[in-house]
Amino acid sequence: MGTLIYEMITSLDGYINDAKGEFDWYTPDEELHTFVNEATQPVGTFLVGRRMYETMVYWETAHTIPDQPEFMLEWARMWQARDKIVYSTSLESVSSERTRLERAFDPDAARALKASTERDLTVDGPELAATALRAGLVDEVGQYVCPVVVGGGTRFFPDDLRLDLELASEHRFNNGVVHVRYRVR
User: Fold this and answer.
1) Who's near 141: CB < 8 A, 6+ residues apart?
2) How many domains does the chain have?
3) Which positions fall inside the Bacterial bifunctional deaminase-reductase C-terminal domain (predicted)?
4) What is the CATH number of the domain that holds 84?
């Protein structure tokens, strides 16, 4: 059975972007990106919402951009090699390999997918993750907490959610980011 993980880079005040929808306040450096690459090795499937897919599909062709550092090429290879399920009512098609489009997130189908795989899965994007969290599907929650307060934007967690968590790991990076991962009890 796979583990379903919800994990993102956030501001210290718990936002994944600022009030303008921007994420320009932080870009992972080599140390952080390498850590994310290693942590993502066990993942076999990315479950993503439309906005997250539109951000992440960059990695489908990132290897064609000249002078990419190896740690970024490694992430691109992982993205390309993993299965992706995009949940969207507005996308007409997807442009990446190993990707299927679903119109709605079905908790029972996600539960069956978890039960049928030996690899981990991630749920990516706060709206999609909120649905999975409310359905009791998420096994682990992680945050890469950046040393910045943005004062508003899209929250990492929905306001109406309560979770009982147990600290599984923590890691500090030289750039001030702290990674915390919790198991959902």
Assistant:
1) 5, 6, 7, 133, 163, 165, 181, 182, 184
2) 1
3) 3-178
4) 3.40.430.10
